[in-house]
Amino acid sequence: MSSRPTRLVAAAACLTLAACANPNAEIGSQIDEGGFGTPTLNNTLVQTGEISATVSLAQRFAREVPSTINFAFNQSTLSAEARAALDVQARFIKQFPELRFSVFGHTDLVGSAAYNQRLGRARANRAVNYLVSQGVDRRQLQALVSLGETQPLIVTEGREMRNRRTVTEVSGFIETDPIKLNGKYAAVINREFVEGASYEIRFEKTESAGGDGG
Prior knowledge:
This protein is α+β, with helices and mostly antiparallel strands. It has a single domain (48-205), classed as CATH 3.30.1330.60. The chain contains 6 helices and 4 strands, in the order αααβαβαββα. β2 (99-105), α5 and β3 form a beta-alpha-beta unit. α4 packs across α5 (113-133). The longest helix is centred in the C-terminal third of the chain and has 26 residues, at 184-209.
């Protein structure tokens, strides 16, 4: 005889005992392994449009703004070129005070991992502090460190300026629930739509007027 009925009875008994052990527990709580609500949360974010808006704004930031700045060897000092790029970042970020941004500091592969971690952190903090000095709300910024050894653009043991960098990225909304934004979430979406429409109009006028040599 198959043992399947026995196993089903045993499983039912276990669930019954679990429910009796905590009569105030919600139905189904005994099968919650800790991530039970994650799919629901993700579905909520998709349905409200928050994920798509974050992705859209992240793509726009990467397309329109120089998101990467570079550093001299063993330095966290901002060059004139780096400050100019951060100025552009600051103007974009101030347009969207509801967004949160992460700044990742990187190093090249020269030096110890511990030293490079400190250097990467210093570079990220320097970029964040400069953005704040340009009027960006510090609450929008999070300085993170990612060592050059783990995410180099160019894999080389020597000095490589392209690896000595900070990268700024859109990481989400300050409030994770759009409803808590008190209407600001809708304003962000509307602002994105208006900016996109304005760009299309400007582009069409440029095309009709003719470009280089037109």
